[in-house]
Amino acid sequence: MSEIEVIAGDHYLNAEAIHLFIDELIKEGDKLSLTNSEMLVGYMSEEQEEPRSLDSAHDPVCVIHKVTQNMVDDMKQEGTDLGYQAGDWSISGGTHENMILSKPFKTLEEAMDAAKDRFGAVRFTAAP
Fold this sequence. Notes:
By secondary structure, the protein is α+β, with helices and mostly antiparallel strands. It has helices spanning 15-31, 69-77, 108-119; strands at 4-6, 39-43, 60-66, 89-93, 100-102, 123-126.
């Protein structure tokens, strides 16, 4: 399995769709009670800026999150077994129609390196 697997589709729709999907991933993390250190948002720019247009490099491109047992159980119920175990790290990005999901990573550092390679993320912040 490659480090990043395309689960549905193979192209991004547009910057707005990506931004909305990442917002939904962050909300899902809130529902799963992930802490700020268990969910990071990746950006293509090193600098933080004020509100900007959706096609800016300052918009989020991916979310890295710690895998919980609830996530593993949900995937099993849906018949999706990607080899995740509670405590692993995962990268998500794209849109609902073009969701990109990573293989499991054992460390946050491995996940961040893969997010840099696949999504061009160079800055990571705790999810809002």
